[in-house]
Amino acid sequence: LVNSKEPADIRHIHPAGWYCWKQLLLYSGKKIISAHIVPDSLVGSLRLASSWSGIASWYLKVFYNMADAVIAVSESTKEELLRIGVKKPIRVINNMIDTERYKQAADSRENARETIGIAQDAFVVVSNGQVQPRKRVDLFIKMAKDMPDGVFIWVGGIPFKGAAANYEQMKRLMKRAPKNVRFTKVIPLDQVKLYLHAADVFVMPSDQETFGLAIVEAAAAGLPVVLRDIHDYDQTFRGKALICQEQEFSEILKKLRSEPAFYAVAKAQSSEIAAQYDSETIAEQLVSLYAEISSQSSN
User: Fold this and answer.
1) Using an 8 Å Cβ cutoff, are 102 and 220 in contact?
2) Which of 38, 67, 224, 237 keeps 20 to 30 A from 254, CA to CA?
3) How many domains does the chain have?
4) Which residue from 148, 152, 145, 143 is spatially nearest to 249, judged by alpha carbons?
């Protein structure tokens, strides 16, 4: 049951607002928390987060330690949880999606481009996430300037508005972006799939990610994936995505556009990502954890 008030043996909670505290404090049963948020993911996301990162670390430590077990969505997230003082058992279980929802039919690309008004012969680069400094929207715009004949689409907006990090600066970036850049603002998930189907390549230039679920969505849509070389991907996407330094993004994109063999290899690697993080693969790990926690006696 989702968001239910019914009695349950186990409550699986996703952080980290007042509703989550209600689930922790007011209901019986074992509690499992999925850790999607760590202090580093707040810096560059919310206004002045570096000034209150100590408070955030304390808050998250208290919150996660209220659980019977904590799920870290990646190894790097587990490292961060241990660093801030989480003492409860931590199990690494990666994020997952139903990859079938994103797979393309033979005419998906053509139909998607017609729907959103993109030429069938255009080279389309897409990214997906909130418009915030941590996501490096500025670098995405630089790629567009380096490839003025390409179409660059950022799927996402600024949902937290004035509470978001560098809100005015991000608005200026969007307003002053070259004509070959589009920002969709925040859109429903079903529409995100449309932009993935219209694209040739997915890029994620973020400085930090706890996991990067949008990467799996893009891979499931059959897109080559290009990521920044950061530690967060060491145990997840390294070896399956194209990993590059900041100054190499445009070069990689141009190579994907001009070399069909290189593109085909990158596309095949993305299929490995989709298979690894499909819900059928990961769900068994969750069920195993539920059974383990359920069998433990209460102290």
Assistant:
1) yes
2) 237
3) 2
4) 143
